[in-house]
Amino acid sequence: xxxxxxxxxxxxxASMGGLSQNNAATERSQQHQRxxxxxxxxxxxxxxxxxxxxxxxxxxxxxxxxxxxxxRVLDVACGTGVVARLAAQAAGAPGSVAGLDITPGMLAVARxxxxxxxxxxxxxxxxxxxxxxxxxxxxxxxxxxxQFVPDKDAALREMRRVLAPGGRLILNVPGPTPQxxxxxGEALARHIGAGAAGFVNHVFSLHDTAELRKLINGxxxxxxxxxxxxxxxxxxxxxxxLWQYVYSTPLAGAVAQVNDERRSAxxxxxxxxxxxxxxxxALEFQVRIVVATARK
Length: 296
Ligand SMILES: C[S@@+](CC[C@H](N)C(=O)[O-])C[C@H]1O[C@@H](n2cnc3c(N)ncnc32)[C@H](O)[C@@H]1O
Fold this sequence. Notes:
Elements: H1 3-9, H2 23-34, H3 41-65, E1 72-76, H4 82-91, E2 96-101, H5 104-113, E3 120-124, E4 137-143, H6 152-162, E5 163-174, H7 179-191, H8 194-203, H9 209-218, E6 222-235, H10 238-247, H11 251-255, H12 260-273, E7 278-279, E8 282-295
Parallel strand pairs: 1-2, 1-4, 2-3, 4-5
Antiparallel strand pairs: 5-8, 6-8, 7-8
Helix pairs in contact: 3-4, 3-5, 7-8, 7-12
This protein binds S-adenosylmethionine.
S-adenosylmethionine binds next to α1, α3 and α4.
């Protein structure tokens, strides 16, 4: 794994505590723990992000993949494993599932969260250079991962290489930036810094259907289909969701470095502007999900 790959992805494994360099930061970190947030971003990701966003999208992806019992499935950029576990249910006992991710902390939570009876092989590696044999999978899945991979062409070529002839690729990416997240990104830029806002932009950076089709065709796939679809998601109340999202993502590291005034200002700003999205005490918003399917 190259140094550049690690730099790109390691942030998902960041810990708030590890970034606490002074007493004020340590106090904030203790307050976060009292609020129920773990010091570990991957643990928060599994606990908060997955039920609110990851799982609803994973169910859609698995439905589109139409996996059959006995299939061999690879989940690329598997994170804490929500897609891999649903794939294991669909492929059943005669099938097999592997998950691959560059961030050790995400894989540690994936391993811990997966029931022992569900034998999933976990691999720590970059999608750009997978330590997996040629033609060894019937389906490759990738949920909300390709936008983070620096060399997308290399990753797609690797996904094609490990597929058996006729094998399917099914991936999704979100974007463009929904209004709810644009508001958060602007507030992060004002109160935390440009780097934090940049993360939100990165999440929604790969959504152009023509660009994605070109990338997938360029990697040698056939029968390429790329379609945008609208998904309505219901999230917790504004302040709750803001901090859940922050502590489930690399934003945790950036927010741990500012003082309480700036954190309070961020919350006030975002919560006020999110009121338009509140329905029955919860946030509701629509996000466009681009789903791509193709064959080797
Ligand atoms: C938003 S998470 C998605 C995780 C999972 N697919 C899900 O739906 O919950 C993005 C994941 O991409 C992983 N990632 C980023 N760059 C990567 C790379 N070059 N190779 C493999 N995984 C990568 C991160 O470690 C992170 O777990």
